[in-house]
Structures are given as structure tokens and as C-alpha cells.
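Obj.: predict assembly geometry.
Materials: sequence records (below).
Method: joint structure prediction, all chains together.
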Amino acid sequence: MEDKSKIVQIGPQGSLAVLALGSVGLKKWREVVREAQEKEAQSKKKDGEETSK
Amino acid sequence: MRRKKKKLNQRKKMAKKLANKILVIGWDAAEWSIIEPLLQQGKMPALQRLMNEGVYGRLKTLDPPLSPMLWTSIATGVRADKHGVCGFVEPIPTGEGLRPVTSTSRKVKAIWNMFTQENLKSNVVAWWPSNPVEEINGVMVSNLYQVATKAAREDWKMPDGTIHPKEKEEEMMEFRVHPHEITLNMVVPFVPNIVEDIELRKDKRVASVIKIIANAASVHAASTHLMENTEWDFMAVYHDAIDHFCHTAMRYHPPLRKHIDEKEFENFQHVVEAGYQFHDMMLERTLELIDDQTTVILLSDHGFYSDHRRPLQIPKEPSGPAAEHSPYGVIVMKGPGIKNTGEEITGASVIDITPTILALSGLPIGSDMEGKALTYAFSEDIQPEFIPSWEEREGFSGMHDKNAVEDPWAAQEALQQLVELGYIEAMDDNKLEQVAKAKLESDYYVARNMIDGGRLKEAIPVLEQIFAESSVIRYGQRLAFAYLSLKRYDKVAEIIARLKEVEKTDLEDLKKKVQEKNPEDPFLNKEFEEPNYLDFIEGLMLLALNKPGKALPLLENVQQKNPNSLDVALNIAKIHKLRKSYSKAEKQYIKALAIDERNAIAHHGLGICLLRQNKFEIAIDEFLSALESNFYMPSVHYHLGEALYKVGDFSEAAEAFEVAIHLAPGMTKAHKWLFEIYTDKLNDTQKAAKHKEFLDHNIKGEIVVVTGLPKTGSSLMMEMLQVGGMPILVDDLEPSKNAQKKSMEFAKVNLIQKDTTWMLDARGKAVKMIVQLLNYLPPDYNYKVIQMNRDISELMMSQQVHLGKKATPDTLPLKLFNNYLSQLNKLNTWIEAQPNVQVLKVEFDDLIENPIEQSEIIADFLGEELDSNSMAKVINTELIKIKKK
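Observations (raw C-alpha cells):
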């Protein structure tokens, strides 16, 4: 079976198309959101470190 | 050898498993009138594919069109009085008020219980109501699964009773989508203006849209997960989102109506369309997850008005939003066991779904189920098997035991959602009163459900009781209509009088409230604001009593105030058709078709009007349209045959008449046409002989019987029929000894107890018979009885005068009076019990006062082209004088 979550572009903002993929889309989207949040936290941390320098 | 062949044929027709796996997808409130333009624009490709590769059609809802009742009927094959889910709410057993209706209210097995008994695996997701879950063979996710009970996702626990088996709770938790997770991107297709308009994001309708998207996404994620990760033979997934999008924003759906604010229209006009497209996207994914061994049934429980029939306001009454529901939902079926022709099917109802699933699965249908298997949509000709009832079938089914409980907090949140949607009133402190009101309301729904199922006599005591207890006008209205259908006109008149009294009191109360409070308060709207309903009931009663002249102005008045009422248009059309005012009738039928373009009665009526105006080709189109909506109407086939004959298409005409007699074998006039066509036009002597034989020997000939107590005008009626062109059976046409008028009698009629051979000659003719002899009519003929009625005291005075006795109202013989009354009662009871007797009651006074109108009614009843004007002339001035005496 084709893994649609690889075809539909999934960004942190999500879309109806992602929700329409059902469980697979939801899982993948949450992963993307988590990664984006982690990245953001890291870059904030980095910015904070640089600012404190 | 011959015997063996017969056996093989029998086997071919027996029950057989046609589908290996069945997937049922429920789209609450899905409606063709919204889907069709989207299909044309290519905006619902998944549904289009499903339709092209299977069959599709309209699915008739049940009355009342309330979803928990309907989805339970869909899953059980029976109506609410049998399945026990009687509305949106139910009392909490401990007496603490109300809660959303639960699965514990269901008294009979659902399809998944039947599959459990058969050792087949079922997954059921979010069916309404399915909380608390049942211990079926498979997985059940309840209808409270997707309802977020906490503002933050982290605090949102999974209440007990949401998932079966319990060990799957944790696994299923992650597929719930919290409204907080819904992003701007996801809402933009529904409300594009939120990108620019920050304020709009705070609108409560946007909040509703967000909640609905989250709920739909949760149900879809849970169902797709189960489809991919469990083994199942049957799966049912229910989505309420289309219904909720529509209740939130159908008023803003294009085209813009005058009373809708343009800015609001601008903001919310895309909600409904986006909702449907979202469902098509989810459908596409769902269909990707099934194999070619799975049969799909996609359906809705009712439709949703999307055009000029949208109500201007929602009635301020319990379940008021259901006024937006239309009577036809959708059904699409595809896969093994189903025709792959892409054709439209007709005649399907939500009550047919469980029998259809059982038949597809090769399982027996319960004889106590109220629907039928839609075998005409099957790819193979099978004869389903039946058992008396699934309730008697032994074995573990997973149904609840009586001690099952649910989480009250989760239930409370769902209750709040129903309040927000307007389905139920917000709770107040007086919970007892609310429970009592809810009980009345649920009895009302059950009574409506019984009426819908044709069980009027069972519904009446329920309605009598709740109307007596509450004086709620809606209950009285329904009661009056029920009595009207049973032709209990005395009771209708009584209920109308009571309703007028209640209305008067209610109006006084309303006036007081208006004086006390702000008159602009919308909650002061009367609950019974259906315009002119009393005129409507009275109009229908007068029409049923053959007083169309009096009924017409009342119905026209109702139509003025209530232009979208289908029933009103059809009844006005009926009156005009009766009076042979075909162009007026035509206009009303066209009006009816503007309200419901697929209405078979309107297409049929319009066809008859066109036929009678010699517009044969378009009449044929109308009859074909009627048959497209309902094929099983023998009189439509008959009229189609008549129209085809007129245009010289004799073989097709013969085919139409053949179908008519196939559906109604006793239809003598169709046999007559067929005999004539096969003899004169098609030279098919063999077939002509068959119909000749029917006409000569078949026991199912039709006889017109004119009856009544003495001096009620039965001889006059015979004379009218004769003059109008109806053949009559009489001894001779000489005046009788005691009167100048002809007696119109046939002596052998009085020997009917001993000799019925004369009846062969009476076929297709009218014969006079006294009331007392009617119950000797043999059951092997069809009868159209014209029963002459007259005020009993008036007719007795007439008899006294006839006998040369002095007559005043004070000197009438009481014994004779009672005897007459008893004879009439016996006659009515007898007629009611005869399936082969149709009766038309003609009031002597009406005949004298409106001879033309009454003649038209008689001609219509007999289905003959009689000369109404000549008939009316028979009623001469001499008779009017007698009446005045």
C-alpha cells in the first residue's frame, strides 16, 4: 500500500490534506510539529547563549 | 432430469454470501442537492468513483428525522418504539436530570451484535449512540471518543466506556485531535477571511468549525488506524461533521438570501462546501485502505435543505433544528455483491440497511425487522433467508447488561454540545420538570415514528395521553393528522376545537409576557408558529369529506403563508384536477415539483393534467419521471400506457399496461386496454385471448355498488351514473309504482345470499344494493362502493312524508332511528375490514348544494371519464324542493 504521508507535503502548520490521511498523517504531522518545536527551542537557546556572550 | 433442473434453479435463488467484508460509512445529513454541483465541478472525486463503480440513490429517512433514533434504526432494522432510542436525551437513572442518550437505552441487537453471534469481527467507530461501548467481537470506539472535555490536550483523559477492549485505550488515545491542534491552515478552506480578519478568529462560529474539524479528524484517524491494524469482517464509521457544519453555516450557503447579512455571508459561505470536500478527502484515504473484497455502503440518515426550502428561522421547540433536515439522504454502494453499473436505485430507506447488510453477508433477516434487503441493487439474484427474530437467537452478542454505566463528565460535555447546536434546551434548576418534559417529547417522537411506520392506531393513544397531559400544540396537531388518516372526522373536529382553545390561552399568555418583557425577545416566538396549521387540518378534513369547494380557500390561505409546503400544493392540485381545471392543477403540481423535484405524486399528477389536455409527449416524460422516483405505482404505469397509446406507440403502451397489471393484477381497465391493443393493433391473438379470458372469467372483476339507507338518494345516484355514461345493471328503466322517479333496482341483488351468478354481468357496471346486503358480497370481486349518506333525522322525516305520515322532529320513531345508526356502524366496520372494497361517502346535502363538484368527485373515484355536467343536471328542482321541506 502506498504511503501517502510521503507524498503529501507535511509542514508544521498542517492542512486538511494531512488530517485526511488519517492516523498516518496525524502521526507524521505531530512528529513534524515536535521536530519544528525542538528546532525552535534549540535556536532560541542558541540565540540566548549568543546574546549572553 | 426436469426435477433436478428445478432444484438447481431453486438453489440459485437461495441466500448466499455475496460480500466478504463490509464497510459502512455514515455521513450524517449528507444531501444530494449539495453533492451534485460539487460532483459536476470535480470537487468530490472519491465519491464520484464510488458511484461510477457501484450504485447510488436517495435514501428515505424516517419521521422524526432525529439522528440518534435514525442511526439506531439503521443499525437494527427497526423503529424507535422497538429499539428504544427515542431522542437526544434520556433521564439519568438516579434522577439527577438528563444526559445524552446512551447505548444502554437500546433494547435490541445492532448489526455488530448479530455479527458477534456469528463469530465475525466488527469495528465500530463513533456510532451514535455507542457510549458506553459494548463487548463485541472486535473493537468499539464510542461516540464520546472525539469530544474534548478539557481545554488543554494534556488534561484530556479517556473516560471509561469509550474503548472496547479496554487494553486498546492507550493505543487509541493518540488519534484524538484536540481543537487546540487545529491550525489556521486547516480552517482557511472553511473561512478564508480569517487570514486577514483577526477579529473574525474570535467568532463563535469559527470556534464551532474548529471543534467540528477536530472531531471529524479524530474519528477518521481512529477508523483508519483500525482499518490498517486489525482484522475485521464488518466495519461501521459514523461522522456527524456534515450535519454540524450545516447547522452552523447552511444559512450562509450560496445563494445569498435577502434576510442574511452580506458580511456574514461573505465570511461563512464556504463552510458547507469545504465540509463536503474534506469528507471526500477522508473518503479517498478510507477507500485506499480497503481491498477489492470489501463492499462499501456510504449513507446519510437524512438530507439537509440547501436551497429556497431552508427555513427562515429555527422553531423554538425541542429538536427545532431538525426543521432544516430534508426527507432524503444519500446511499452509495460498491463492491462485491453490488451491481457495478453506476446506475441510480430508487425506493431505499434507512430502515433497509440492516436487512441489506445481512442479506449481503448470507445471514438471515429477522422477520420482525421493518425494512427490506435492497436485493435489486445486488449483482446476483438471491432470495434472502428469514428467521423469526435475531432477539431469539442464542449466543453471546456483546450487548450490555443492565448494570452498564458511563462517565457522567464526558456525557455532560456532549450534552453541552447538543445545547450549543440547539437540539436541546440549556438545563435549568428545575430538573424534574425538564425530565418530565423530555419524557413527553420522547413519547411524541415514538408516536411520530409509529405513524411513519403506518401504525396509526398504536400512535393515537400515545398522542392522546401526551396532549391531555401537556396541551402542547404540536402534539395536538399530530393527533389531528393521525385521526384524519384514519378517517375519524368526528375526532379531528374535536381535536381542532381543543387546539383552538389551547391556542387562545397560549396567545393570552404570550401577550402577557410581551407586556412584561422586551417584545423583541426572540424567545417569545410561539412554539407553534407553523402558519395556519388549523386551516390546513380543516382543509384536509373537508377535502376528505368530499367538500373540495370549502377546502380550497382554506388551503389557498395556508399556501399564501407557507409557500414551501409540498402537501398543501399537492392537495390544491388534487382539487383542481378533480374539477378538471387542468391548467390550474398543472401550476400547483409544478409548484410542488419546485419544492421536491423528485416527487412521484407530483410528476404523476402533472402527467395526468397534460394527458387530459392532449399534450401526450410531455405527459409521457412526467410519468417516466414519476416512475424513476417510485417504480411501484401501478396507476402511473397505467396512465403511461394510455399516453403511449395516444401517440401510437402500441407495443410500449402494451408493456406499460402489462407492468400495471403485474403490480395490480385486478386492474380490469388495464386488461381491457391490453385486449384492445393485442386485438386491433398488434395482432397478437394469443395475448389478446389471455386478457379476454381474464375479462370473461377472472374472478377479480370490478363492480360499482351504490348503497345507502332508504331515501338517501341511491336511485338518484344510479340515474346520475347512467346519464354520466356509466353502464348500470337494472331490471328495466320504467318508473316504479310508488314514485315518479325510476327505482333503478335489479331484483336478483336481493337473492345474493343464494345466488351470485348474476354478478358476472355486473362487472364494470353499477348496481344498487341495500346496506343490509353488502356483507354478502363475495370476496372474489373488487368493489367500488358509493355510500349515500343523509342526516338521519332528516331522512326519517322524508320517509314519514313518503309514507303519508305526519312528520316533525319531535315525532320521529326512536327505535327506528337507533336501528339506522346501528346499521350504518355495522356497514362501516364491515367496509374497514374488506381489502377489496373502496368506498366513497356522498352526503345527500352536498349533492344537492354542489352537484357539479360532487359529480366530479364521483367520476374521479370511479376513474371513469364520466360527463359531470349531465350528471349534475339530474339533480332537478323537484329534489331541491323535497330537501327544503
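Conclusions so far: Residues 4-52 of chain A form one domain.
To do: check interface contacts against the pulldown list.
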